[in-house]
Design a protein that fits this description.
alpha+beta, Double Stranded RNA Binding Domain, three-stranded antiparallel sheet, 25% strand
C-alpha cells in the first residue's frame, strides 16, 4: 500500500502534475492506485487532492486553503495524526468551509468508576446531558470501563433523534502515549475505527485526559456517520 503513497507537499504537487517523475510504473498496472497522505509534511496540494476525494470543492487560489493548512499543522504539532484518521480530517475540512453542522451540543458529562474491594470488577457509569435542537436529553449508562460507558450513554441520549446510529460498531480502539517521561500525566492520542454495514472510518482525539481524547474521537465518529447519511 505504501509503494504509491505520497506525503510531502512538494512531492504531492509534482506527482499530481507528472506522476512518472516519482513513480516507476503506473500503479494501475499492478492493481494499485495513488494515495495522498495527510501529515505535518502536507502542503496545499495534499489538501486539494483529499478534498477532491471527499467531493469537496476548494479553489486552488482560495485563502481558506492556507488557513486549513495552518490548522492542520498546528493540530499535528499537538499530537493529532490524520494520516490514520481521514474521517476526522474530512470533518476538519467541512468545518473550515462552512459545510458542517452540529447535530447536538454537549451540556456536560460525568464518568464514575467505583471499586469497593480488591478482586472485584470496578463498576463504571456515565451520565450525559446533550441538547438536540431545542430539546435536552439526560441519560445514564454503564459499560466495561469509562470509555465504553460514555459511548453507551451518548448513543442512548441520541437514539430517538438519530436512530441510524444504532448500526454503528466500534471495531478498533488504540491509545498511544505522546509525551514520554510524564507517566500517567502523559498526553495521549486515541484512534478509533468505527463502521456500519457498508463502510468503516477512523477518527482521532488528543488530550492529557484519556476520556477527553476518547470523547473527541467518539464525537467525530458519530458526526461523520450523520453527515454521510445526509449526503
Amino acid at each position: 500500500d505504501s509503494a504509491f503513497a505520497h506525503k510531502g507537499g512538494v512531492h504531492v504537487s509534482a506527482v499530481m502534475k507528472r506522476p512518472e517523475t516519482y513513480e516507476h510504473i503506473k500503479p494501475e498496472l499492478v492493481g494499485n492506485s495513488h494515495r495522498v497522505l495527510i501529515s505535518d509534511l502536507a502542503g496545499k496540494s495534499n489538501i486539494l487532492r483529499k478534498a477532491k476525494e471527499f467531493n469537496i470543492h476548494i479553489a486552488p487560489d482560495s485563502p481558506q486553503l492556507q488557513d486549513i493548512l495552518n490548522t492542520l499543522k498546528d493540530l499535528e504539532h499537538q499530537g493529532f495524526q490524520f494520516e490514520g484518521a481521514e474521517a476526522s480530517f474530512e470533518l476538519l475540512l467541512k468545518k473550515a468551509l462552512g459545510l458542517h453542522r452540529k447535530f447536538f451540543d454537549l451540556i456536560g458529562f460525568r464518568v464514575i468508576v467505583e471499586k469497593r474491594k480488591e478482586g472485584e470488577i470496578p463498576l463504571t457509569e456515565a451520565t450525559i446531558m446533550v441538547r438536540v435542537g431545542g430539546k435536552t436529553e439526560h441519560t445514564a449508562a454503564t459499560g466495561c470501563g469509562p470509555v465504553n460507558a460514555l459511548d453507551n450513554a451518548l448513543r442512548s441520549a441520541l437514539d430517538k433523534f438519530y436512530p441510524e446510529l444504532r448500526n454503528i460498531k466500534l471495531h478498533d480502539y488504540k491509545v498511544r502515549v505522546l509525551t514520554a517521561g510524564k507517566g500517567t500525566a502523559a498526553r495521549v492520542r486515541v484512534l478509533a475505527e468505527s463502521g456500519d454495514e457498508k463502510n468503516r472510518w477512523s477518527t482521532v482525539g488528543v488530550s492529557e485526559n484519556i476520556i477527553e481524547a476518547s470523547w473527541q474521537a467518539l464525537v467525530d465518529s458519530i458526526e461523520y456517520k450523520l453527515l454521510k447519511e445526509e449526503e
